[in-house]
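job 3f2a | input accepted
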Amino acid sequence: MSDPQTLKGRKLGDRRVVVDRPHARYFRYLGPGVLEAKLEAQAPRTGYQRRMATVRGVLFGRPISTAAELAERLPIWKALPVFSSDVMSSVAYATGAMMLILAGAGQTNFKYVLGLSGVVVALLVIVTFSYRQTIRAYPNGGGSYIVAHANLGVLAGLIAAGSLLTDYVLTVSVSVSSGVQALYSALPAIQPFAVPLIALSIVLVMIVNLRGLSDSGTLFASPTYIFIGSMMLLIGVGIFQSLTGHLHEVANVEKLTGLATENMGIFLLCKAFADGCSAMTGTEAVANGVPAFKPVEWKNAQKTMIIMATLLGIMFLGTSYLAVNIGAHPAGAAGIGESVLSQVGRTVFGGRGPLYYILQFSTMGILILAANTSFADFPRLSSILARDGFFPRQFALRGERLAFNSGIVALSLASIALVVAFNGSTDRLIGLYAIGVFTSFTLSQSGMVRHWFAERGPGWRRSAFINGIGAVVTAIVVVVIGISKFDQGVWMIIIVVPILIAMMLFIKREYALEGVGLDVQPDIVFGPHHRSQRVVVAAQAMSRAVVQAVRVGQTMGEEVQLVHVTLDHVEGEQFRERVERQLPGVRVVLVESPYRALVRPFVRYLEVSQAEDPDRLTVVLLPEHLPRHWWERLLYNQNVHRIRAALVGRKDFVVLGTPYRRES
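job 3f2a | predicted structure (664 res):
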């Protein structure tokens, strides 16, 4: 800080003191040792960095401050397409999936489709009212993981989390594959390019989501509402034609042959019902995303849930009724051919006219955008798991647009890999579907029953009864799906989920071991330094590696600063208190970063503080976790490498690593 200047005015007593802070361009001073980094603190420095920042700005938009988060919240009209596009889009394939199973005993058994659809809708009503209870009890977000973890224990929470993570990946793969199927139902010539088109569509949805929740809600609203309008028009016109005797059978449809190899019975009905339950995947998304709503969050979430369930019930029952009455036939076992919804559309609308193409293209749009439900919830769940120590820490950080970038990118890569592995076949992918989400339904509702019994507030018996019914019914569905679809790929999910749980427990153990022994006070007395220098320790989190770096720094200079870039004021103060308790005498500097950058604000702080005393040398100590295994490189030292790259070679800075190897 430069010396204060006293300025005199023309009038008596007209004096004021100006404190010149030339580096105020980069920071706001909030209190002793507390700075807030401005957007300029993370501005690019080199030509390459500026060019990349321009590209990011075009693709993803301008960085958003954490303080502006409330403006990014969603009103109901935006939240509906973001959180319910998945569940509403399932009407495009759920009816056809049931019909394909029933075709195994002969196409005369399509008469059971409407009854099975009614059972699915009844189940939807039960689950919807159960999750309304969850939203009320957990107004800050009541996803299956949070509810199960809080009420049933760690293992139950991780089972729910693993089930949901796999379901989100499958949702993206199935939804986008079905969307491309709707496209080549209208334009058969593009069918050979299905897999590349699916992968490209996933990448486009990823880019939109990296722009932030509000932008994705705005961009996805129009296709969602066009689809809803097209479906309501289709069902209204179709039912009117049916009642007046003008509904004709579908023409020019390729009928299935060679599938009638099974006997009609309870088992086949259960398999068809299991595929029909795919219409309900995504029902829990609203409860998971309550914090994304505008205030009052839980009330708006409840309203959105009712609207979503009502629209789904009407569209699903209407599609099944019309499909049975026109004699529609599902696409083949390889998932190739005209979809049931396409057959209904060209029959009701009288051929491939404008209304038919609006229906098909809006169906393609909603199916591709249905992946957005997973893009909204997978990163949020990953961030919660990372906050609890079960996922790598980078999943807890939000990017420049307040989006959880690591989760979004990971979901995209996993979904594309699954699409390539299954050649984009909706029928093959749907065999893996639904069991994960119904497992999470069951755990969530069971956890809510225990919650009500523990809380015993007003009306707790009624609430416990509603959630208890939901838990019992969804548990029965899990058993039905597990038995009836075991040979269709459910066995893969039964293997994958335990592997995910083991991985999460392993990561938790690694992070827990890192913090062991932090309460040990420094026990070495250090002598005076012999050079005019300042020592700065970069601390992302309090760990034994940081303690070791501080001890090394105290041998090098009288002044040791522990600089911590924080994304949250409360977390920063907690960090300061912990350091002052465990490392007395160490000065803590907090740099608050409302734009969630970690490295550039740290480097800017070093630059502007160095400018105050250019003659001194700044020694930067970087605590490093020395990996013992290759996979530990994914968990540690990501920001250390970036800081070293930014500072190495500068004449006023010495950058030293202080590696730490954990013994056990």
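job 3f2a | Residues 520-531 have pLDDT under 50 and may be disordered.
job 3f2a | closed
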